[in-house]
Amino acid sequence: MINLAEENFLEAISLCTELPMFRCKPSTKPCQAIHLFCEIGTVPNLLLELSEKYADQVLIAKELVTDYAASIDNWKINGCSCPFGGVDHCNLLNFFLSLTTKNFYFFRGNDFSPEVICEMLQEWKGINLFPLITTSSQLATP
User: Fold this and answer.
1) Beta 103-104 vs 138-139: how paired, if at all?
2) Which tens digit of pLDDT belongs to each residue from 79-122?
3) CA dist 130 to 55, 61, 88, 97, Å?
4) What are phi and psi of 135, to 5 degrees?
5) Which of 22, 35, 92, 133 is the most buried (most CB within 10 A)?
6) Strand partners, 85
C-alpha cells in the first residue's frame, strides 16, 4: 500500500514528466512539484529512500526538467507561490532529483550550490536537507 509521502513523491515526479508539454512556456507544474518534494523533505531520509526506490523515474524526470530548463527564461510564474523564477524552479527540482546521485548541476548563475539551495529551503520552508548533501556532494556540468 502506498502511503501519502510516496503518493506525493510520485505526483511530483509525474508533474516533472509533464513539462515537455510546456516547452518554451511558463508553467506552475515545477512549483507544484517543489511543494510536494518539500512536504516529503520534512523527513529527509524518507525523501532519499523514495528517490532510491524510484531511481528510474527520477532519472527520466531529471532529463525532462533539464530539457524544460533549456527552453525557458527565469520568468516569474503567475499563480505560483514559490518566490523564484522558472529556471530557478528547475534548479530546485534538479536538486531534489539529484539527491541520490549527488550529481548536482544548475541551469543558470554561479550563485547556486547544493548548500545554497539547502539554506534557501530551510529559510523558506523550514526543512533541513543538509544531512542529505554532506557526504561526497559534487558539482557537475549538464
Assistant:
1) parallel
2) 888 888 899 999 999 999 999 999 888 887 667 889 999 999 99
3) 21, 23, 19, 15
4) -100, 115
5) 92
6) 76
- The three-state DSSP-derived secondary structure of 63-129 is HHHHHHHHHCCCCECCCCCCCCEHHHHHHHHHHHHCCCCCEECCCCCCCCCHHHHHHHHHHHHCCCC
Which residues lie closer than 8 Å to 107 by C-beta, 6 or more apart?
66, 69, 70, 87, 90, 91, 94, 142
pTM of the entire predicted model: 0.90
Instruction: Report pLDDT digits (tens) over 32-91.
Output: 999 999 999 999 999 999 999 999 999 999 999 999 999 998 888 888 888 888 999 999
Q: Which three cell numbers stand for residue 93?
A: 527540482
